[in-house]
Fold:
Amino acid sequence: MSNLSLAVRDSNTMLRRNLLHARRYPSLTLNLLLTPVMLLLLFVYIFGDTMSAGIGGGDRADYIAYLVPGVLLMTIGSTTIGTAVSVSNDMTEGIIARFRTMAIHRGSVLIGHVIGSVLQAIVSVVLVGVIALAMGFRSTDATALEWLAAFGLLAFFTLALTWIAVGMGMGSPNAEAASNSAMPLILLPLISSAFVPIDAMPGWFQPIAEYQPFTPAIETLRGLLLGTEIGHNWWIAVAWCLALTVLGYRWSQAQFNRDPK
Structure:
């Protein structure tokens, strides 16, 4: 069997393993999914009128349209915390050490985790999107090409954050530490342009919100779904995704190939 065939076979086996774990223990994914859903409900039904008036004087429907792209990307950050916890559990329970001794393709263990986590995150994004549609979100101005570009951005961003989460999980001594180390994946969207425009923030805070990966991705997704101006945000978002993917991949590989203590 060729090296490529071996990699595909073993990666498929590891993918089935991770999806089976997710199906048997769905509570972690569901608990993490509650965070963006609760924020969506809170900011629409509790703060919606006040927030929409504060950012331009529109109605609640306008604020839903503004809010949803940020919440979709927050959903990705939230669900990838489960990836860090899952990888950490594998490390601390010894299964990773066992896989290192078996005649399987070494990269398949991480690839199985990454692909499985990406699929779970995309399903979570779809579920949050359905809830947003039920609450009144509409994207009537987006063309088929823009929808395709939006899906591609969500998938690329998911891949980038998943690799970072895998690195966090492999470097954590236990599942609790992995969950804590991955908390920035939820906190960063809160200090981005997800809920209010950057111009409405205090001047000293604006660079913090602007120079991070979530803001350009949110503005790009918002432009694709709502027909607003994207400007230079799209290539900054792609650059962030590419950089985080490479960083997470190299970090994860280095830790996986390191000799156990």
